[in-house]
Structures are given as C-alpha cells and as structure tokens.
Amino acid sequence: MINQIRSITQEKAVRLLTLAFFCIMLILLFTSSTTTDEGDSLMHYLYAKYAFRYPSHFFNQWAKPVYVLIMAPVAQLGFTAVQLLNIIFTCINFYLVYRIASQASIAKPWMASLIYAAMPLTVTVSFSGLTEPMFACATLLSIFLLQKKRVYASLILFSFLPFIRSEGLLVCAVIFLYLLVIEKYDLIPILLAGHVFYSFAGYIVHHDLMWVFNKLSYATLSSAYGSGRWGHFFNVMPEITGVVVKYLLWAGVSYGFILLLRAFRKKINETEQQELWLMYGIFISVFAGHIIFWALGIFNSMGLIRPIAGITPLMAIIALRGIQYFTAPIQQFRAGLYVQYLLLVAVLIFPFTSNVYAYKWKRDFELKADQKAQLQLVKYIKQYYPNHSQHTMYHVLPWVSIQLKQDWFDPNRHIHINDAFTRNQFKKGELFIWDDWFAVVEGNAPLEAVRKDGRFKEVISYEEKDYWGNTRKTVLFEFVGAE
Predict the structure, then answer these.
(1) Global confidence as pTM
(2) H/E element holding 327?
(3) Number of neighbours of residue 222 by Cβ within 10 angstroms
C-alpha cells in the first residue's frame, strides 16, 4: 500500500514537473529569437510549409516523410508554431522518460526526467524545426508500448522511425536483434511495415518501389564535409549532456556491461533484457554509428552534435543508472540518499554556471550572427528593390527566403547558386546573395571568384561578429552581364 501511494505521488509530481518544464520552455520561446540552426532547422520547416503546394515533399527522404506529414499543417502557422510543436515533443519526452524508467524498475525514475531536462542539447534543439525531438518522442513511445506489452503497435511505430530520421535504421537493426535473442521470429516482418507502406505510397511520385532506399540522401560512402577524429563525440560530450551527466552516463554504461555479461550467462529477466536492448542497445548503436560515420567521412556526416538529441532521453535514464551504480556501496545508509540528491543538484545547477559549456543567451537563444547580417540585407532589398518578388533570386539561404516570404522551391523565385553557375542562367538585374558558409560549401562559389567574374556588381555587404568573435559576412550582388 505504501509503495502504491508513493507511486501515485511520484506520478502527480512528474506531471506537475512536466507542466512547469513546458511553461519555462514557453517563456524562452517567446523571449528568444533563436532558430537553433541556420540550415537544416529552417529547411525542414520549408519542406513542411510548402508540402501542400508540392505533394512530392510528403515522399522526400531528406525532408523525412513522417516529419513532413505531421509538421505540414502546423508549418502553415509559421516557424514559431513548428518550434512550439517541437517543445511539446520534448515535454512529452520528459514525461515518457519517467514512465520508461519506472517500467524498468529503476529507483527514483523522476530523477531521469530532470536529468533529461538539464541536458543543454535537450533545450537548444527544442527551439528548432529539426527532426530530433519528434524522433526521440517516437522512439520513447515505441519503447514504452513494448514495455506495456503492446507489441504490434510498438513494432509498427519502430518501423516508421527511419522516415523521421535515418538513425531509425540503426534502431530497427537493434530491435531486429532483440527479437532474435528472445526468439520472437514471427514478429520480425512487422519491422518492414514502414518501408512497405512508403514504398507503395511514394510510387506515384517516384515510379520506383525501391525509392525508399534509392532516394536516401545519406546513402554515400563519402562526405562533402570531410572527416574527423574518433574521439570527437567524446570530447564534445559536455556540450551534449553537461560535465556532470557525462560522468554519470559512463557510470551507467558500466552497469550496462554488467547486464550484458548476465545476459550471456542467461541470468537476466525480461525487464532487464528490455533495458539492455531498448535503452543501452539503441543508445550504443546510434552513438557509435555517428562516431564511425564522422571518423570515416561517410554518409555525409558533419560531426554535428545535434543528431545525438534523438537519444538524449535514453542517455538520461542511463545516467540515472549511473547515479545508482555510483552510490550502490552506500545505498543502505542515509548518506547514500544524500549523495544521490547532491549529484542531481549538481546536474541541475551545471547549465547555469559560468562553465564554457553552460547556457549563454547570445550564443544559444539569439539569432546567429550570419542570420543577423542576412536580416539587414533583407531590409535593404525590401527598401531598394521593391519589385524583388517579380524576379528570380540566387542564394542558398533559407533564412532569407523565410524573411522575404519567398517560395524556396519555385524556380521563378529562387534558384540554388550552384545550379545558376552550372547553367549560366543569370539574367540582367537579378540578385545573387553570397554568404561565407552556404555559398562556399553548398554553392561552390568563393567570394573572390564571384568578384573576379565581371558580370556581377557588388551592391552592399553586411558583417556581424558571432559569439566566438568570428566575422560572418553576407554580400549582395546584382547581375549586370558582360561589359
């Protein structure tokens, strides 16, 4: 009876904490100007916004079909509405972390929710149009359904994860192995449900039943962004989890190895088996996957930390295991409880310290420097080129398209820089916007090369210093033709 009362009390407390977390995130949403990311965050929004005008977006493997399907109606209300839905996903994750940890018989499961909320990456990615919050939510819901023995619903949802983020393929591989281990061979075909559905649904657009594989934008054993060190993701872990959680996570992973050894000896129950595969297995597969992709320079990996946001809820649960594993020798004493609470307090306080990885308003909750420069340029265009909407503009800047209310996908309004130079299709009087990242990396157009091309007149440029003191530059050119 006492345990039941404690469980009910914890449930109510977590619901209140979820509501409080939502309110805090809502305040941040309306007091900040961040889009988190200047590229993919905005591009995912644009794909969703214009999906009803271009139905092929619902079957675009880069944009992710399930993401577009869910976000398209919301995106009609603007980018802030998309941010709000991602915040809602994060708050659902906050609650599901508690429920999953509770189902796994982990003591004090409410701590896992607070650990998740305290992770820097959890908060910053929530203010974006990125796919990670939705992916994390769908993954958690799939796990929770499996814990509750809603097996068919769970496996069907797992099967659609690759159509929210490509890491879903790694998750499905783990679930495939899990079903093999528990000898549920008859359930394995269900993991194909998502691919079968979209293969046929997208045939009308792609005329290819294998488009779900053939159109994978990351299916390449190379990367335009190069490669990095094997230790990269370990080195940037404080930016993902915070310093305290980083160590708790690795302590929790140590507990996972103990579970693995017990599994080999067949001294593991069903609940522990699920924890081993559904939490540790999924975390390790996705985390290790990104380490390998970046180190080998494959699958167009950029070594970004934000994709890890898809598994930060699982990392929070593992970190809670780390707290308990770390304090196990003294848990029978009252001091053990005090140490656990002190560790939790350290987790919650860390993001607000003066540490280099702590939150910084200018860095994390304001527009990036290049976006600020682009805003100034947009004001200039509106003032001095009032008929800009009647001409094609050339750039690789989704933020500019959003601010000008420009249909990114309409070739009469916007054309990618690289395509323009390749086709040599500039017309007199048309505008070309250069920036120091997208134009160079995505558009293959270095500034000096454009300046040396006698067909362009440099109109005006804007510069802004970013948080680290680097100068971000945006330049407006007008095509005047050959002299």
Answers:
(1) 0.93
(2) none
(3) 12
